[in-house]
Write a structure and sequence with these properties.
heterodimer, A: 7-stranded mixed beta sheet, 5-stranded mixed beta sheet, 14 strands, 34% helix, B: alpha/beta, 5-stranded parallel beta sheet, 14 helices, 7 strands
Chain lengths: 360, 395
């Protein structure tokens, strides 16, 4: 994996408008891949609309919607009044009436006023109507921390959504996945909460966006919703992670390799549906597991993963499944966040605690 | 009876599309529009034209049926056939008018109390009552008659209405959306966001508040101190109007004008109907705790049915024979509801997992299998003559 993570936010550096019809692999940012996925989805299907706060003329505070209004017009990518419940509720009605809305919630903690619409209607409408009303809505949420953002800009809110039946919850960690998963989310007939790790917006990979587009449009891209992936193979222990924590887990695995331990890293990609198969196959192979996630650990997605692994892999386990998560505190201020975020050292300490002395 | 002098032109009559409206054209009338008073006499209110007598007569028949549906549903709750029923007794004129002013291409967004409106729109009563019987959450296909699911959370559906209207507008369709709510819902944030979004995007939505004076037990004065709920419209730049909610003729005129205005590109508007909830919030509620019998009695003479009957009888449009026919039709609706609800419905536990995602997740497949096994074990136990449900966990 050639991904690198830049630490500091740099709004406006996410690339130029358009879809970037590059002919050869070149350094492409996560943000640029999302922008291309939106443009390609809007190009492919006139029912796809993008709206939210500042997504039009400005192109989004993170420039993910850069150039979409210029290219597709104000009816296809538009700014709304500043009201998240309004954005979400209007999306429900538009989806009921034949559109495929993609909405941006601007920041994780700004999405909470829309929570009732998400929980009471987006998630339940298909079920309430026995599938008569489908809501193919994508809720894009710039999410999680590590960018030096002030309060209410860095929450990890995945557990709220993952706990709500009816929602698909995705968190890409690579540039390639950012493109394919957003395309897949928009194509899904079900509502999708699409969590975009803010600290990965400026990470880069060598990818050819035109090739990704062709692969997706030809139906050649393997499914990502519901499918985890082995991001780094290993034999001694498994790190299970998703979204913003995946690069940290990979860095920890690389560091562990230097100490002679072969650590496998699973990138979940899809929190709901959850890929028990890939996760459990790995843990059964390695016999040890640590879950790495940025959200507070109590009653979290990480807790759920630990529970599932213990239920399914108990007899393969050489040690308890451990968690490295954020602390159970409100997301800290910028000068304190590095104490909070799962770090390579904290992950390595957890790996060290996996009762290696008991290994036969 | 209201006076008809110098009321000016109704604010929903002939609103010019586009441009920044001036404030005074957005304000509702000083008093609610009333075309027929409680004695059945035309008021001479010149702000809106009196609807055609035959049109009123047609709607009157639905009014009679609506009352009968409310009575029947209340009886079915007492018999344990419905889990609960929020009655619209006394508000039937609002219910009927909301449904009949819409065309086939239009959408109705009802609340949980608007069962009569949904039935009047043409949805099968038994499918409507699925929710209240407890078989499933919504028993009808919203697309069949363009009636959204009955909303239980307050005001959230108003935003959905805006979305449906916006989508229709983007496609160049002439759809109008009529979205209903009660007085309590006007305090919710979604109410304000819906009105603002509708005005900013200039979409064809009619917001229709049935102000029945109570949100469960809380009276209007604890809900809002605005001069009227219709006055809220001006803050969003749309016209507001007040109408006597027990006057079917006035409702047809005012809501009809609002729908016409929306269809002609005039944008959204807000209509407040002044009515009264003659019965408790639901059968589970004790209304004597928060209002007196005298309060309720004061509204009895304003009954929408009695008033319209007098008016139509005086016009010679309604005869005794005609009334009998309408009563028989209403009885037939009630009988169909009664017999339909006296039949036990087989609920299918497998359906629990069917409509959560388009494709069942592996987690849901596992849970569906677990439930199937439990049911098979119970069936086996029953076949063997043992009671599998008692004796605690034997495993």
């Amino acid at each position: 994996m050639t991904q690198t993570t830049l630490g500091a936010p740099a709004p406006g550096t996410a690339g130029s408008p358009g879809t970037g019809a590059g002919t050869a692999p070149r350094a492409t940012t996560f943000a640029k891949a999302l922008n291309a996925a939106l443009a390609d989805a809007m190009q492919a299907d006139a029912a796809v609309l993008m709206f939210g706060e500042d997504v039009g003329t400005l192109g989004g505070v993170f420039r993910i919607t850069d150039g979409l209004t210029a290219r597709f017009g104000e009816e296809r990518c538009f700014d709304t009044p500043l009201a998240e419940a309004g954005i979400m509720g209007m999306a429900v009605g538009m989806a009921m009436n034949g559109m495929k809305p993609v909405v941006e919630m601007q920041f994780d903690a700004f999405a909470y006023p829309a929570f009732e619409q998400v929980v009471s209607h987006v998630a339940k409408m298909p079920n309430r109507t026995k599938g008569k009303v489908r809501l193919p809505i994508v809720i894009r949420i710039p999410y999680a921390g590590g960018i030096g953002g002030v309060e209410h800009h860095c929450d990890s809110s995945e557990a709220y959504y993952a706990h709500t039946p009816g929602l698909t919850v995705l968190a890409p960690a690579t540039v390639r996945d950012a493109y394919f998963m957003l395309r897949e989310a928009i194509a899904s007939p079900d509502p999708v909460v699409f969590l975009e790790p803010k600290k990965l917006y400026w990470s880069k990979e060598e990818v050819d966006l035109a090739e990704l587009r062709r692969t997706f449009d030809d139906g050649q891209a393997p499914r990502r919703i519901g499918r985890a992936v082995v991001a780094r193979p290993g034999t001694d222990a498994t790190l299970i992670s998703y979204g913003p924590s995946v690069p940290t887990a990979l860095a920890a695995a690389a560091a562990a390799a230097e100490e002679g331990r072969s650590i496998e890293v699973i990138d979940l990609r899809s929190i709901v549906p959850f890929d028990d198969e890939t996760v459990c196959a790995s843990v059964r192979r390695t016999g040890r597991a640590v879950v790495v996630a940025e959200a507070p650990g109590f009653a979290s997605v990480a807790s759920e993963i630990v529970a599932r692994v213990q239920e399914r892999c108990f007899h393969s386990l050489a040690a308890p499944v451990l968690r490295v998560t954020g602390f159970d505190i409100p997301y800290p201020s910028p000068k304190l966040e590095h104490f909070y975020l799962p770090s390579v050292d904290r992950i390595l300490d957890a790996v060290d605690a996996l009762q290696w002395e008991d290994r036969p | 009876m209201s006076t008809a002098t110098n009321k000016g032109r109704g604010s929903l009559m002939g609103g010019a599309p586009g441009g920044t409206p001036s404030a005074h054209t957005l304000l509702p009338s000083a008093e609610p529009v009333q075309l027929v008073d409680q004695d059945g006499q035309p008021t001479g209110d010149g702000r809106y034209p009196m609807p055609d007598g035959k049109r009123i007569l047609g709607a009157y028949g639905r009014l009679v049926a609506g009352r009968r549906i409310n009575d029947q549903a209340n009886a079915l709750v007492r018999q344990g056939r419905l889990a609960v029923y929020p009655s619209s007794h006394g508000q039937e004129a609002c219910q009927v008018a909301a449904a009949v002013v819409l065309g086939g291409e239009d959408w109705l967004f009802p609340t949980y109390r608007d069962t009569v409106a949904v039935i009047t729109r043409g949805v099968d009563p038994l499918e409507v009552l699925t929710l209240l019987r407890g078989d499933w959450h919504a028993g009808y296909d919203p697309y069949e008659h363009r009636v959204a699911t009955q909303a239980t959370p307050l005001a959230t559906q108003l935003l959905h209405a805006v979305g449906v209207a916006h989508a229709a507008k983007l496609r160049g369709e002439s759809t109008v959306v009529l979205a209903m709510c009660g007085d309590g819902a006007t305090s919710e944030g979604d109410f304000h966001e819906a009105l603002n979004f509708a005005a900013v995007f200039h979409v064809p939505v009619v917001f229709f508040i049935q102000n029945n004076e109570f949100a469960i037990s809380v009276p209007l004065k604890n809900q809002s101190v605005a001069p009227s709920l219709a006055h809220k419209a001006i803050g969003y730049g749309m016209p507001g109007e007040r109408v006597d909610g027990n006057d079917l003729a006035a409702l047809l005129a005012v809501l009809g004008a609002a729908v016409d205005r929306a269809r002609d590109g005039g944008g959204p508007s807000l209509v407040e109907a002044h009515t009264y909830r003659m019965q408790a919030h639901t059968n589970a509620d004790d209304a004597t705790r928060y209002r007196s019998a005298e309060d309720v009695e004061r509204w009895v003479p304003r009954d929408p049915i009695v008033r319209m009957r007098s008016y139509l009888r005086a016009l010679g449009l309604l005869t005794e024979e005609g009334e009998r026919v309408l009563a028989d039709e209403a009885d037939a609706v009630a009988a169909a509801i009664r017999s339909g609800l006296n039949t036990e419905v087989d609920v299918n536990p497998a359906e629990l997992f069917e409509y959560v995602y388009t494709e069942k997740t592996s987690q849901l497949r596992e849970q569906a299998a677990l439930l199937r096994e439990e049911l098979a074990r119970d069936a086996d136990a029953e076949a063997a003559g043992t009671d599998g449900s008692t004796g605690g966990d034997q495993r």
